[in-house]
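Researcher: Let's walk through a ligand-bound prediction step by step. First, I give you the protein sequence. Second, the SMILES string for flavin mononucleotide. Third, you return the three-dimensional complex as C-alpha cells. Ready?
Model: Ready.
Researcher: Here are steps one and two:
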Amino acid sequence: MSLAFTPFTLAGLQLRNRLVKPATFEGMCPGGMPSEALVEHHRRVAEGGAAMTTVAYASISPDGRSYPTQLLLRPDAVAGLRRLTTAVHREGAAASLQIGHCGYFADRRLVGGRPLGASRRFNAYGLSFARAMTEAQLERVIGDFAQGAHIAAEAGFDAVELHFGHGYLVSQFLSPYTNRRRDRWGGSLENRSRLAVEVLRAVRRVAPRLVVLAKVNLRDGFPGGLELAESMQVAQHLEAEGIAGLVLSAGFVSRTPLYMLRGEVPLGPMMAAQDRWWAKAGLFLFGRLFVKAYPFEEGFLLPEARYMRASVKLPLVLLGGIKSQVTIDQALGEGFELLGMGRALLHDPDLPRKLEAGAASRSGCTPCNECIAEMDRGGVRCTRR
Ligand SMILES: Cc1cc2nc3c(=O)[nH]c(=O)nc-3n(C[C@H](O)[C@H](O)[C@H](O)COP(=O)(O)O)c2cc1C
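Model: Step three, the predicted complex:
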C-alpha cells in the first residue's frame, strides 16, 4: 500500500491520509457570507477522501478584500462556517481556513480608498497605488489576524492557514520588490519578516487549540522578488516560532500570476468574466504581456521545495501539479509529509478514493486553467469534467 493512504498526525490533528485540498478561491460568499454552495463544495471534497479541505481566502478585515465574493471574517459568519465544518467532519475529513489580507491588491470599489501596503507602490493588478501602512495600521492588522483565528476556532475549524504568499499583504512585506521601508518593518530580512512573525504569535496566543499553518512562497518568480535563499530563512524563523507546518507555493498575483499554476493561459474566459470594460480591454490588449505562461510539469515546485525540505524539520505540504500516484509516491519518498492537490480535486473530488482503490492512477486535469475564470462566474468549478 502507498504511504499516501496512511494516517498522519499534524501537531496533534489526526489526518486519515496524506492528501489535502489546498485553497482554491471558491467565489461562493456573496456579501462576504458563507453560502450553502460553499458548504456543499467542501463536503464534497471531504466525501471524495481527502484528509483535509481548505476554505480559501477569508479576509480578516473589510479592507483586505480583492473580490466581492470573498469570505469576510466577522462574528455573523460563524453559524454558516459551523455548518461547513460539521459537514466536513461528518465525512471524516479535517477543515482548514485560509485567512489573509490582500494589501495593495484590494479592490478600491470594495474598500473605498487607497489600499494598504508595505510601501507606496503601483499595483498593475488593481491599477492603484498602495498606502504605506502606519504602525497603528500594522497593529490593527495583527489584531485582525488574531480575531480571524478566533472566529475560525469558534466555527469548529481544525486548522488555520495564514496566507503569507502570492504577493498578498504579508508577502508584500516579505518581498524586497514591494517593501521599501526603512523602519523596523523593512530593510533586513528580519525586519521584512516581522509582520509574519507578529501575526503568527498573535494567532497562536488567541487560538492555542488550532493547528496553525502558513502558505509561503518558495520564490516570487521574478527578478527583484523574494528568492529561495531568503524564503528558507523565513521558514526557519517560523519553525522556531512554533508553526505547525508550511504549505509551499510560489508566484506573485500582480507580476507572475500563473507561476503558481503553470499550464494554459485562459485569456478568453478571463476576459468574459471581467465586469469592468477597462479590465476586459486591458486583458485583450496586454493580457499576453501581463499573464506570462509557464509550461506545466507534474510536481513543478519539487526542485525548489527540495531545498526547503533540507532546511527545516517541520511538516511540509508540497503542491503544484501533484496529479498522479507516481508523483505522490515520489514526493512522499523525498520526505514531504502531505501533498496538496488543487486542480486535480476540482476536476474530480473522488480522486483520493479512486487512487486508494486502484481505480485510477492519475488526474484527468489538463490543465486548461479555465477554473480560475469560473471563480468570477458563479463559483469555481472544472469546465472539463
Ligand atoms: C481556481 C484556483 C483558485 C485558487 N485560489 C487560491 C487561493 O484563494 N489561495 C491560495 O493560496 N491559492 C489559491 N490557488 C492556488 C492553489 O492553492 C495551488 O497553490 C495551485 O493551484 C497549484 O496546485 P495544483 O497544481 O494542485 O492545482 C488557486 C488555484 C486555482 C486553480
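Researcher: And what stands out?
Model: The mean pLDDT is 94. The longest strand covers residues 52-59.
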